[in-house]
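Lecture 7 notes: from sequence to structure.

We start with a single chain of 395 residues. Read the sequence below before looking at the structure.
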Amino acid sequence: MPAYPRLAARLDEMRSSAIRDLLTVTARPEIVSLAGGLPDPELVPRDRITEAAQRALQNLDSIQYTETPGWAGLREVVAARESALLDRTVDSNEVLITHGSQQALSLLAQVLLDPGDTVVVEDPGYTGALQVFRSAQARLVGIPVTAEGMDIDALESELVAGARPALVHTVSNFHNPASATLSMLRRARLAELAQRYGFWVIEDDPYGEIWFDNPPPKPVASLSDRVIRLSSASKILAPALRTGWLVAPEHVCKAIELVKQGTDLCGSALNHRMAAELLTDEDWLAAHLDTVRSSYGRRATTLRAALLDRFGDVLAMHPVDGGMFCWASFTDGTDTESLLRAALDIGVAFVPGSAFAVDVNGYGDSLRMCFTTASDEVLMEAVDRLGRAHDSLRD
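Now the structure, written as tokens:
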């Protein structure tokens, strides 16, 4: 029997997501999982979504194909929200609705990148972005993330040394995985560098509305027209709505529309109408977000306090001021891939830092933990199990 024809060469650069691979293990009922990046389903507003669905279904257009860039009503809603956020008028023609913000990343890679182009990413970086840019056969340059976000001094050094990226990707608010937020000073410097060196910035912001005490600084996109903003309803409403969006200059949106026609033709008119209703019900949405922020903020505090109590100076952590994740690094040489194997035997899971590394061998002493889907009691039990796993490596 002849061999199958070969697969595309771009697959040679791709790695499976360690987080997705872990899901098969963490589905076991005895495992307490801090590995996923999922909103708490108990906080998803199912009753309110049901009402929105019933209203949307009264219009026959909601069960028909819609425009490739998204239902016009939702684009207008997003344009109004983004106008308020960016302190400038955003036209609905500068908005494109996507099947989650991950699709927006994929479409942008097709529109903005040629094979071999340089892309600057944060290190540690969002795994979904790393997969997209590797698939596009880009050359990745990692820039460290500190407690104040991407190290802009390091970025500028790369640029001065001759690097000419086509784009720079940043998760500016409550970073996944590092939990850091890009400071206002660094935002201004990033915007200035984009103007000076002529690259695009993709500001990926799925967590910006999940702040605990204070909202994050103004978006980088408010400082430069070279910034393309991505966001999503997944973390504040429901992942199943599969509703994300990007805000970009109109000519970029038109180019993305052409590419999108070759992938899915259009999104779900039903979901777009539902999302538009939920996002414009301002009093309800404000109360809902208050509940989400309060619940996640309490859980983040519980997790950090338990980790500090159990590990002390053995574990260094970035602040957690919002979002869904806690990033920590062992100071005693612990290898977190070995720790994960021991932890799974005791019944707790996390994501090793190596899953987020731009280079294969990075962040072997680090781990990411998600606190959103566990109660305070379960989080404390998870840390106790993690501590026992850590002890077992020292025995």
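The mean pLDDT is 95. Keep this in mind for problem set 3.
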